[in-house]
Structures are given as structure tokens and as C-alpha cells.
Amino acid sequence: MGIKHRTAAPTAALALGLFFMPQVSTAIDGIINTAAPLVSAAIGSFSFMSPAMGQPGALTKKQSDALNTYSRAVNDFETILRQRREQINSNERLPNLPGQALYLARVNMMSAYKDLTDAVPSKVGRSNKFGIPPAYFDADNEPLLDEYRKLFDLMEAPPVNAQKSDTPFKDVVDLGIAIARARGLDATDAEAAGRISLGLFFAETNGNQNAGNARSNRYKGSLQTGPSEDQNGRTKWAAIKQSIAAFDPALSLRDDTEEARVGNLDHRLNHWTAVRDGLMNAHADIFPQVPEIVKTLPNPIDQMKLFELIQIIPAPTRSALKSGNLVNHRISGPTIMGYLRNNSIFAFGQADRARTSATLREILDAMWLFNDKFERALSQFDAIKARSKG
Questions:
Q1: What value does the mean pLDDT of the chain take?
Q2: Where are the domains of the chain?
Q3: Per the CB 3.0–4.6 Å rule, which of 119, 251, 253, 265 could disulfide with 66?
Q4: Nearest-angstrom CA–CA distance, 273 and 279
């Protein structure tokens, strides 16, 4: 998920999976009482010293400084992870936005490692299970990110009154396809829109329905929308629902059922309505361009990345789509680059953070933290297709 450009917070969510709900300290208590005992508190037994932090040898002062900075960053990340784990295990009241400090510490660790490997290229190590470029992450510290993910899963657990679906992935695909067909796409291109929609769900919530947000009190739900975005999506859905009912009465009936079920509850706490309204708010107007997008970006993961950029930097991305030269369109400006960094794009190390502009192609390539999410979305999409044919 991305923290999105609209937040006032100067940081962003990790593409490994990221968000939370309003008034975290009270809403999470009941969840943690049940979930915390199920999660190991073994972080205290981890050993985080890596080869990159061994004897410096004949390093220059700049190299030695980079090594020391990285060592401190790893220690700081370990400390905040342990602190959150202890707070959760002891049912202690969490601070507001409890994921913020975790996120900052992770960014600092990866940034410091990138600066270290820039200064001492021989410190670039082996590949890691997260698919993070080795210059940005020491694989010996994989347990840190494992614990990071476990903590966010706890802190972003849905509230007790959230309304889940038994078919969350299929719902996303079905809604994406129906909306795309209502916008005039044929069956093939509508299927691509459904696939892209599933990618957005994984990008925003790591594939977890009704997710909270540990780094924002504004965004929540299966597509991480704010109240105004959800309302805008509901209005747009009402305008096309009749046309959808004409070609897919079963989906329209499901929609009626979910509307009755959610009633006066926040629509973002019902998986179906949250996805529906999120897609209508930000993406339905772009779906008519899917045929051209697929031609320009034949890689399905690139297509998902482009639509995720509609979430993060909507105006520049729309301008790129109108430019006639999508991949070479250059995006610049300190505010826009800040929004990208707030979503883990050009966020790590001095060289990346010094960038003042980038082409769309460069931005897509820099979204490597999203790759694992989108690959899982593709796997789920293929499984849905196989079941429908079987």
C-alpha cells in the first residue's frame, strides 16, 4: 500500500505491506488480545550482525563513516521492532500511528546500506527472499523484515465490525471487469482491467481485505481510500450501475446484497463496497485507455505499476498518459518527487534521494518493492481464471 500523496505525513508506506485505522490505541486492543499470543516474540533472540558490519580494514574516513551509520541504523531498527513487539505482547496502549517509527527506521536502514554499498561496492551481498536489489539490503537481515511484516499485520488487522468476503480476490477481479465493460472495453481488455485491479488490491493492502492503516488515520479498507474518495466512488458507481445490471445481473444482485449488508456502516469496512468505490474513484476513468496501455506496456506488472501511480501521483501520471510518449515522459518537481519517495520510490540512499526528476520508465523500474505483491496478484489472477474455466 502507499501512504499516498494526500497525506500530510512526510513518510510513506512500504510496498512489502503497510497501513492502519483511526484511533489505533483503542481499536486495536481487542485484536491484539487475541492475535498477539499467536505470534512469536523471538525477535529478542535474533542476531543482526552481518558481514557488511565486520572488520572495516583499510577503509577511508568516508567509507568508515558509512559503515558506522549503517551499524547505527540496523541497531535503531532492531530497537523499535523490539519495542513494538513488547508493547503488543503486553497489551500496552500503542502510540498514535504506531507504524510510523517502524517505517522510518526501515527506510533509514536501507538508505544507510545503499550509501555503504555506494561507498564500498564490495559490500553488496547475495540476493534476498524479498527481491530487494542487494545493493539496498543485506540478506542477513531478512529476519528484521519478517518481524516488520508480522507487526504490521497485527497493527493493520481489520476492526471487529468489518464485513469480509469469502472470495476477496475474485470480487476485485469481477468488479474491475464489470467497470471496464461499462466503460466500453471488450472482453479481452476488460480482463486486463480486472487483472490490474487485483494488482492494486495487493499493492494497497498486501492482499488483506478490510485492512487498517498503521501510518494514517485517514485511509483504510481494501483499497485504502479516504472518506471523500469513498463517497466520490459511490456517486460514480450509482451512475453506471444500471448499465452493469443490463449485462451482468448476477453482479448487480451481489451489489444489492452488499449494500443492504453494509447499511449505515462506513462503506470502507465492507470489502465489496470498498473495492468498488475505490476503483470507481480513481481508476474507472482510466480503464478506457487500457488497450493502448497494454500495447505500450506489455508486461502485466508494469501495467499494475502504472495504475498504482494513479494512486500516488494522479495528475502527473494522467499527464504522462496524454503525452503521446508515455515511457519517456519526464516527471519532476520537489513535491512530486517527495510523493514518490513517500511511497518507497527513489527513497533509499543519498543518490536516489537527490534525484530531481525521472522518466516514467525510470519510475516504473524504481518500484521494485512492489514486484513481489504484483507477482502474487498475477498468481491469484491465474488461479481465478483456471477455476472459471474448470
A1: 88
A2: 24-155, 168-389
A3: 119
A4: 10
